[in-house]
Design goal:
By secondary structure, this protein is an alpha/beta fold. The protein is built from ten helices and ten strands. The strands form three sheets. A six-stranded parallel sheet has the order 5-4-3-6-7-8, with helices on both faces. The chain has a two-stranded parallel sheet with strand order 1-2. The longest helix has 14 residues. The chain is globular, with a radius of gyration of 21 Å.
């Protein structure tokens, strides 16, 4: 099940139209005649504007661009959430950061509740923290008695399996029994199942990638490892007291989020810094309270911000 279908089933959107890059859209029969409202959440245009305009909407809601003067001015310095809320507000709708919140339907399982989730993957190399550091963090958390689940998509099964295998191998002697606390869930979860898992987790540790936004939407504490993109643009926009962002970048000179090689700022985040931050987050969210819509959920406690000390990796 894709993200769009999941959001449709949650009632967030009415229907999903598959899209591939800037290819022409194929609309369902009820929209093929035109006259619908089209909203461009792809980017600033004008190419993406033209794709939507070709579907003959009665109105195109989009940022002003060459050939499309009707719209607000695009600003590169604002948070992504604020940018799109500004577009919706310009069009006459109501939108704010609180609209990020999602409520899941009943039906999740408590089997994995309270685990620490590690999500080592990301769509580009510039946003992937090294696998050996994920393994070291997983092993250290397990040695503290924490259950650790490594998540990932179908194309990240090998990555997750490698992280788990390496982490278990580091648990020797008195720590050896803790190896069973580390497991992989990569490639086994639908998006709704992943959302259920995130909602019931004690903590999520991941890079600047999609699952981080799930933690924001569901109110799950997180430790986020940012690299090329400043968190001022893509970091958590609500409940900032339960999310800690580690970032060593330069806001005046951001990197390329689509590059193949790891961003130097991300690479400078050490395993020691990440582990210490995770343990602080867990210590302030130790108590848990039931959530009426979905099982146990962490209470929202104030966390310390990371000191961003650049310890050796």
């Amino acid at each position: 099940m894709g993200i769009g279908t999941w959001l449709r089933d949650l009632g967030v959107v009415d229907e999903v139209v598959p899209a591939t890059g800037l290819d022409p859209l194929v609309l369902p029969p009820e929209l093929a005649g035109g006259g619908h409202l089209a909203v461009n959440l792809h980017g600033r245009g004008p190419q993406s504007h033209a794709v939507l305009a070709a579907t003959r909407p009665s109105r195109l809601v989009a940022f002003a661009a060459d050939g499309f003067p009707d719209g607000p001015v695009w600003r590169a310095d604002e948070h992504e959430v604020d940018r799109w809320c500004r577009l919706v507000s310009w069009a006459g709708g109501e939108c704010g950061r609180e609209d990020l919140r999602l409520t899941l339907p009943p039906g999740g399982t408590d089997d994995d509740a309270g685990a620490v989730l590690l999500h080592p993957g990301a769509s580009s190399g510039s946003r992937r923290w090294p696998p050996d550091r994920w393994s070291a963090v997983a092993a250290a958390l397990a040695s503290e008695g924490r259950r650790v689940l490594v998540t990932g998509g179908p194309d990240e099964v090998d990555l997750a399996t490698g992280v788990v295998t390496d982490a278990r191998s580091q648990l020797t002697g008195d720590s050896a029994p803790a190896a069973h606390l580390i497991e992989t869930r990569a490639g086994t979860l639908t998006i709704p199942a992943l959302a259920d898992l995130v909602a019931s987790a004690a903590l999520l540790i991941c890079g600047d990638t999609g699952v981080a936004h799930l933690a924001t939407a569901l109110g799950t504490p997180s430790v986020l490892l940012f690299g090329p993109t400043p968190p001022q643009q893509w970091g958590p926009a609500i409940d900032e007291q339960i999310h800690t962002v580690l970032w060593h970048g330069d806001p005046t000179n951001p990197g390329d989020p689509h590059a193949d090689q790891i961003d130097t700022g991300l690479e400078s985040i050490s395993r020691a810094e990440t582990l210490a931050t995770a343990l602080r987050q867990l210590s302030v969210a130790e108590l848990r309270t039931p959530h009426p819509e979905f099982g146990p959920r962490p209470i929202r406690a104030t966390s310390e911000r990371a000191d961003h000390a650049r310890a050796d990796a």
